[in-house]
């Protein structure tokens, strides 16, 4: 489904947009839409991941083979960018790298376990955008056990499961808003709703269920990809003004996003015209993972020289994006693609393939 590959670039672009804004305006306190575009983009990544892995699952695949392919995809880029960031911190004598606690936090990021720890020092350690990889690795660990359960569900069970996943996406943020929030533990609410891998599992499972719904022929509301995308934008604008902060991380946009993923996939299943299926969009989607990991470093190189010249995040985005794309392409060509070819398939099987 090439249109879903193109959609990945839209999600990566949303993250780059938000981080451009935040780097130029680090003291922003109000829930402006620019801030929550990135949060919704991460939710889109999680739902897309569950959808694509389920739709493309091989009946004869084994858990070991699946985990091998996921490790070959995720770890090389992560380890490479982590080394670059930590080397830069050491070179600039940043205190976080010379203290014991800083070293422990950075190492926890290397092993993708840092977001399980409710500490700002840990969740922002190493290469900060890689925090979501801890959630993805958690999803991948569970996927071989979750897939048979999802496949065995009846049509009614799939719809009930999807409704339950959506309800869970809303339940915990509301608990944090009305039970945890009043105690003044703002960071704990943010961590437990946005960063904790277990809290993001319903979005991944919702993507899996939506894929099975499509594969079994259940008719969902007929909404085109463009109207679904506009509904996501409209929800972000509305939610940033009227909804509790914890609900804007994922809950507010979960239904529009899952409809967007379904509608985009339908473009390919029905052979309809799709801008996301064009060669440039597919290429950008293929380098989107590299873009996600390398954009923070690239933005820092662009933002720091311009920060004192009264640029804002919206203006700097079109300047920084081409440089981010270039850096992502180099990482994709130099690290991601070669490692995928060498590591995703056992050597014995690769040697036997003519």
TrEMBL record:
What is one Pfam family matched by this protein?
Answer: Acyl_transf_3
Q: Give one GO molecular function term.
A: acyltransferase activity
Chain segments annotated as transmembrane: 7-24, 36-58, 79-100, 131-151, 158-180, 186-211, 223-243, 249-268, 289-308, 314-335
Tell me if Transmembrane helix is a UniProt keyword of this record: yes
Name the InterPro entries for this protein. Acyl_transf_3_dom, Acyltransferase_3
The residues covered by the Acyltransferase domain are 3-332
Provide this UniProt record's keywords sorted from A to Z: Acyltransferase, Membrane, Transferase, Transmembrane, Transmembrane helix
Q: Which PANTHER family match?
A: ACETYLTRANSFERASE (PTHR23028), ACYL_TRANSF_3 DOMAIN-CONTAINING PROTEIN (PTHR23028:SF53)
What is the name listed in the Swiss-Prot or TrEMBL entry for this protein? Acyltransferase
Its source organism is: Streptomyces coffeae
């Amino acid at each position: 489904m090439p249109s879903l590959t193109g959609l990945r670039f839209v999600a990566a672009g949303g993250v780059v947009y938000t981080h451009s804004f935040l780097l130029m305006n680090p003291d922003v306190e109000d829930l402006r839409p620019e801030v929550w575009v990135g949060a919704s983009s991460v939710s889109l990544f999680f739902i897309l991941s569950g959808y694509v892995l389920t739709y493309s699952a091989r009946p004869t695949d084994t858990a070991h083979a699946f985990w091998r392919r996921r490790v070959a995809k995720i770890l090389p880029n992560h380890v490479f960018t982590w080394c670059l960031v930590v080397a830069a911190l050491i070179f600039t004598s940043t205190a976080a790298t010379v203290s014991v606690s800083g070293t422990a936090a950075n190492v926890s990021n290397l092993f993708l376990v840092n977001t399980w720890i409710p500490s700002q020092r840990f969740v922002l350690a190493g290469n900060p955008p890689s925090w979501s990889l801890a959630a993805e690795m958690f999803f991948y660990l569970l996927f071989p056990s979750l897939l048979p359960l999802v496949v065995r569900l009846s049509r009614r069970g799939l719809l009930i499961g999807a409704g339950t996943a959506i309800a869970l996406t809303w339940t915990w943020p509301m608990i944090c808003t009305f039970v945890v929030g009043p105690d003044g533990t703002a960071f704990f609410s943010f961590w437990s709703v946005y960063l904790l891998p277990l809290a993001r599992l319903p979005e991944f499972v919702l993507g899996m269920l939506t894929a099975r719904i499509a594969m079994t022929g259940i008719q969902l509301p007929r909404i085109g990809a463009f109207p679904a995308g506009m509904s996501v934008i409209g929800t972000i604008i509305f939610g940033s003004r009227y909804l509790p902060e914890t609900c804007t991380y994922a809950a507010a946009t979960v239904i529009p996003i899952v409809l967007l993923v379904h509608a985009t996939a339908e473009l390919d299943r029905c052979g309809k015209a799709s801008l996301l299926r064009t060669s440039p969009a597919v290429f950008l989607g293929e380098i989107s993972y590299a873009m996600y990991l390398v954009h923070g470093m690239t933005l820092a190189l662009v933002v720091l020289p311009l920060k004192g010249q009264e640029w804002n995040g919206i203006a700097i985005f079109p300047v920084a994006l081409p440089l981010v794309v270039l850096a992502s392409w180099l990482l994709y060509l130099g690290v991601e693609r070669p490692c995928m070819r060498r590591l995703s398939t056992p050597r014995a099987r690769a040697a036997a393939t003519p």
